[in-house]
């Protein structure tokens, strides 16, 4: 039977619970333990697939095609935990299952209630993660903040779970805030006391506290928190703001968090270390030799979370190229008219990510034209590829008004359109082309140069496709089709002849990039941007990582 860790959050949201959870996973893996990670989300949507990035940030796609919370991306980037459909449980899924059973008559004669029916269903899903497999520890992160009405059933299920599994098999870790009050010049523990108290009212005593803070916690303050919150002093862990998210496991390890967890869970002590992670990921992130600027042209650029995996994948490519990747986030709506110089002349590479809906589309298409004509390295992903195809049709093939039928159903040149199987889809939730599909790579292409393989597999999340009707016209004019699905049934990668690096793919490579295993396409793109440096800015990185907080990488939005 595996041991279990539940991670809750208190005081405010956005304290980095996902990264803290992933870091704990990393710590335990470094000890040779086999872990599985899971996120329990209290919203009623069955999955975040139908939510806007403004509501939810990025929708992370798993190998098996689940549309999930972006924290699962952190789990996959930090650990080797398997991630799939079972890894993200929502209130929507739980109620859906219970109501389906009720209609079937499974509870015949009974009143169906939150306790025990909903909580049983939640516990079942926590157990399902490890059923039939051998894990040492299952880590379940509970979304939301303690005190929210909607997370109550999950907390109650976790409380019951510990009761059933025994104290030595379940640990509760609570992430909380210790704010620094500038006027008083002091760190304050009261919000932490309150949130630990709220948990206790529900019947959960936190075992370990991760205290998010901008200043160091003194020994006295730790003792005070320990005393008032009823935890051991060594279980009060400081979670200071750090320069790179990849430093968090090191910070926890320094304070012996892994030892405390193992002691509470009666796991055999194994030393383990994070030396490779420090050397190959953290040090290379903080002290790169070179610097390169990539412009990301999208419509959700003002949000930190909307292109999470994409920004991380660019940083991983930076690690691989010994470079700091400065990300300029450019709102595509600002590129709809006028000169693009102000926005794009100072970047070394242009990336257009995935997206839905018409807003800002023409700005993306103009940015792609700029990249094509000025021979700036270009990388298009999903909608980014579709826009590249539209741009080439309009300006390279003189197909005036060419478009995707997503945006103009009546276009005379539907170069991107729906497959027949998608035409009849009535329900929008979970019905896109989702998850991993194989892709054949043609030799003599940028894709082959990057992957070094003729068969790859990548994750998808889209409904529209390259329209094969125009395939030959495109090829004649210099569009290389370098990646296809099922011997050509679907176009997966396109490239431009007569351009130093112009590649666009229908899949989402960002979901498979890891800091210690950067994605080949991102790596090649950043490498080319660095090599060519079309912006003409200097290549060497400034040596001041101490000044950049939270991320060792700068991102800025161009106004
Ligand atoms: N909106 C496009 C489609 O559905 C692209 C999707 C995406 O970029 N993820 O095909």
Could you report the average pLDDT, rounded to the nearest whole number?
A: 93
Weakly predicted, low-confidence segments: 546-554
Alpha-carbon distance between the termini?
A: 54 Å
> How many DSSP H or I helices?
19
Describe the largest sheet.
10 strands, mixed
Give the strand order, joined by hyphens, for the main sheet. Answer: 19-18-21-22-23-15-14-12-13-24
What's the shape?
globular
Assign the structural class, choosing from mainly alpha, mainly beta, alpha/beta, alpha+beta, or little secondary structure.
alpha/beta
Q: Roughly how many Å is the radius of gyration? A: 25 Å
Task: Determine the strand fraction and express it as a percent band.
Answer: 15-25%
Binned, the helix content reads 25-40%
Number of strands: 24
Tell me which ligands are bound: glutamine
3D architecture notes:
The protein has 19 helices and 24 strands. With 559 residues, the chain is α/β, with parallel strands linked by helices. Helix 14 packs across helix 15. It starts with a strand and ends with a strand. About 2% of the residues have low confidence. It binds glutamine (GLN). Glutamine binds next to strand 19.
Detail the topology: elements first, then pairings:
Layout: E1 3-9, H1 17-30, E2 35-41, H2 53-56, E3 60-61, E4 67-68, H3 71-78, E5 88-90, H4 91-104, H5 114-128, E6 137-142, H6 152-165, E7 170-177, E8 180-181, E9 186-187, H7 190-201, E10 208-213, H8 219-229, E11 236-240, H9 248-254, H10 257-264, H11 275-286, E12 290-298, H12 308-320, E13 323-331, H13 341-344, E14 349-352, H14 361-373, E15 378-381, H15 383-396, E16 403-404, E17 414-418, H16 420-423, E18 433-441, H17 446-451, E19 455-462, E20 464-466, H18 471-476, E21 479-485, E22 490-496, E23 502-505, H19 520-532, E24 555-557
Parallel strand pairs: 1-6, 1-7, 2-5, 2-6, 7-10, 10-11, 12-13, 12-14, 13-24, 14-15, 15-23, 16-17
Antiparallel strand pairs: 3-4, 8-9, 17-20, 18-19, 18-21, 21-22, 22-23
Helix pairs in contact: 1-3, 1-9, 4-5, 5-6, 11-12, 12-19, 14-15
